[in-house]
Amino acid sequence: MLKKGIALLIIIVSIYISFQALLPTKISDLTTEKTEFSTERALIHLKEISKKPHFVGTEEHKNVRHYIVSELKKLGLETEIQEGYSITTWNNLTKSKNILARIKGSDKGKALMLLTHYDSNPHSAIGASDAGSGVVTILEGLRAFLVKNIQPKNDIIILITDAEELGLNGADIFVKQHEWAKDVGLVLNFEARGSGGPSYMLIETNDGNANLMKEFVAANPQFPVANSLAYSIYKMLPNDTDLTVFRRDGNIDGFNFAFIDDHFDYHTVKDNFERLDRNTLEHQGSYLMPLLQHFSNINLNNIKANEDYIYFNAPFVKTVIYPFSWILTLLSVAIVIFIVLLMYGYKQTVFKTKAIAHGFITFILALLFGGFLTFLGWKSILLLYPEYNEILHGFTYNGHTYIWFFVCLTISICFYLYSKIDLKHNVANILVAPLTIWLIICVGVAIKLEGASFFIIPVYFALLALFLLIRQQKPNLILLALLTIPVLFIMPPFVKMFPVGLGLKIVFVSAVFVVLIFGFLLPVFGFFKHKKRWSYVFLCFGIILFFKAHFNSSFTENSPKPNSLVYNLNTDTNEANWATYDYVLDSWTKNFLSKTPERITNTSTIFSSKYGTTLTYSKKAPLKALALPIIEITNDTVIEHNRHFKITITPQRDVQRLDMFCNAKSRFNAFNINGVLVKKLKDSTHVFTERKNNRLFSAFLVDKEPLVMEITIPANQKNTILELYESSFDLLTNTQFTVPERSKNMIPKPFVLNDAIVVKKTIVIE
Fold first, then answer.
1. pLDDT reported for residue 128
2. Are the C-beta atoms of residues 585 and 597 closer than 8 Å to each other?
3. CA separation, residue 458 to residues 17, 332, 455, 517, 520 (Å)
């Protein structure tokens, strides 16, 4: 009994350590040595730059820029502002104003760049985490670094970009236009996609990552959270950072450091000073300081490599790396050992085909029931709580509780299924199935997802456990528990990471991970009596967690409901309506849309947003005498087979955004916007050939400058029709409207055009 208790304690403590090792637990305060990073000193900066939304073109955006420049000057650095228009792959145009500084090194090699951005997301995001946390990490890190008064070997370039949220525009003009871009050898980029949790290191490179990983390990950050699986998945997702531009357009390697927990705060007004996790900011500092010291003093000319490395983090050993070339060897050796153990087990008459078959049936049922019930469970929860759909991130405020609810439910299923098997002297037989499935998975990832090939590491320890179970009828449970430590150190964080990062819609992946981990715990749990009781215990825990999630399902001031409202004025038809992106109307939106709004079925016009969200309901609205934009068509000439003309749009309101649409039938031979030539896609003779929902581009206005378009179309093209949508984000403050402030349990919905007054005007080129 004592050994079972100790074995169980080893498992529990190992899981606890696997999470504890991800983040610092002590926050560096104002008494920290001047040569060290201090989170509390960094927070002083954050409080200043996260007072209000500061998206491109706002007065607060200018204030934040001035503050950062002044702080860099206080450090003794000369600064410059790089300014220029760009249109990026997102088809968003704006004028960016990058902040730049440079520390001179003693050698003439490649420079190290510290990178983040200072703009917040339009229109309500405060931007304390995204990416105020990156700004203050760099400011405080530079202060601590410069206090030492030791000149680095490499130049250090500081780039705090603008318009990252609009389409990586600031990074685009630096990489393509600034003379310093050719000097950069490596980039350290600090980002956020939530307001807490561990910061994940993700590599950006066009080449092999071998040298990058060797140097990362040599720099020895204290709390590395990095694995090659995360980056393999990251590359598949539509998530780009400024660093992507450096890799894609400049062939410059780098490291992203980004945290993703409390995802529900991302791009909202709740991304504020108070909600940023202090441990997370400490974690960013724990990356910056050793990496800044290391990479500012090594030869960055040799950072490129042809070889890739597998990498993963684990407590105590920090970051483990090994070459991709080992993947097949490790896999093959594991398969050979497994086959030998199978033959050995049969020879020793330990293995029984019937018992192994029962083990396969039970484990496969656990995988199917765990994954399928979790998948259906989340779908059912969305039906019970349709208001969850208002959180476009896909991760609810009580999302962590739901994760642990499904974890407990899955563990309950596992214990219940294995309670149906007679495990007396049979534990070795039931371990065959998990080992087989794990090996099949390892074969699959070796072929399709090489970054996950470190899954083979726990397999070796499970094979050793199998050997002990074959050799001994009553093996030492403590020793068997110790053999589970590798799987418990490596795998449990994935249970949380996937639904936190990708949304609760894939919480079923967490359930699958739980079953896979449980399979390697069978050498211990197999000897536990009363498995059905354990099943009921975890079921009770799950029920408690479900009710906890239920009692926390209501929207409150701390967990507010995202909602939306837009006023649309169509100047072509002289009609106006209220519209919303919400699925479930609330007391605030019903003021304008009533209890019986009209369902919007025509969604051909979709403004650019992260999730392609469409308007849901509308209601006729009173006409307002809004100042309309001045549209001038000039320089209309035909040369050979091309027709050239110029359109100048000058808003007469305080407008933040212009969206331009055109049906797919119209062709454009050339298109120049505010001096920026729109590039043609490869093998295309026209521009804007791939239009999603007929959208050409969105322009985010700066310095109240007009939008000037120089357009070339085929001379024989008839009736080129452009649809202009002019948007201002002043619906709640415009004196022509009486829109009350939201209740404290509501916030503006992110990722969509919100709190906006939109004027539509059709431009016909006959």
1. 98
2. yes
3. 17, 15, 6, 10, 8
Calculate the CA 257 to chain-centre distance.
Answer: 11
- Other Cβ atoms closer than 10 A to 203: 23
Contact in structure between 516 and 484 (CB atoms under 8 Å): no
How far CA 189 is from CA of 73, 325, 742, in Å, comes to: 21, 29, 36
Residues of the chain with pLDDT under 50: none
Tokens 């939201």 belong to residue = 742
Tokens 């860099």 belong to residue: 72
Q: Beta partners for 671? A: 711
pLDDT, position 766: 85
Q: Is 302 helix (H, G, I), strand (E, B) or coil?
A: helix
pLDDT at 106: 96
Q: Which of 3, 4, 20, 5 is nearest to 488 (CA)?
A: 20
CA distance 324 to 318: 19
Backbone dihedral region of 611: left (phi > 0), alpha (psi from -120 to 50 degrees) or beta?
Answer: alpha
Evaluate whether 494 touches 512 at the Cβ level (below 8 Å).
no
Q: Which two tokens mark 119?
A: 């703009």
Tokens encoding 96: 């960016």
Q: CA-CA distance, 705 to 707, in Å (whole number)?
A: 7
Per-residue CA distances from 550 to 206, 318, 388 (Å): 46, 38, 12
| Of the candidates 729, 736, 728, 740, the residue with the CA atom closest to the CA atom of residue 589 | 740
What tokens appear for 499 in the block?
Answer: 């639904």
698 neighbors 92 (Cβ within 8 angstroms) = yes
Residue 664 has what pLDDT? 86
Q: How many CB atoms lie within 10 A of CB 250?
A: 18
Cis-peptide into 123, omega within 30 deg: yes
Radius of gyration of the chain (CA): 29
Contact 557, 746 (CB under 8 A): no
C-alpha span between 89 and 608 (Å, rounded): 12
**Which phi and psi angles does 106 have, rounded to 5°?**
-85, -20
Distance CA 439, CA 335 (A): 7
CB 213 within 8 A of CB 145: no
Strands 561-563, 746-748: pairing kind: parallel
Contact 745, 751 (CB under 8 A): no
Query: What is the model's pLDDT at position 613?
Result: 85
Q: Which element (helix H / strand E) includes 102?
A: strand 92-103
Rounded CA separation 580/615 (Å): 6
Q: The tokens of 674 are what? A: 């505010």
Contacts of 164 (CB under 8 A, 6+ apart): 117, 119, 131, 170, 171, 241, 242
Q: Enter the pTM of the model.
A: 0.95
Contact 535, 419 (CB under 8 A): yes
Distance CA 123, CA 140 (A): 28
Q: What are phi and psi for residue 117, nearest 5 degrees?
A: -130, 160
116's enclosing H/E stretch is strand 111-117
One-character DSSP codes across 265-300:
GTTSTT-STTTS-HHHHHHHHHHHHHHHHHHTSS-G
- Three-state DSSP state, 748: strand
Please classify residue 315 by burial: count the beta carbons closer than 10 Å to its beta carbon, then call 0-12 exposed, 13-18 middle and 19+ buried. Answer: middle
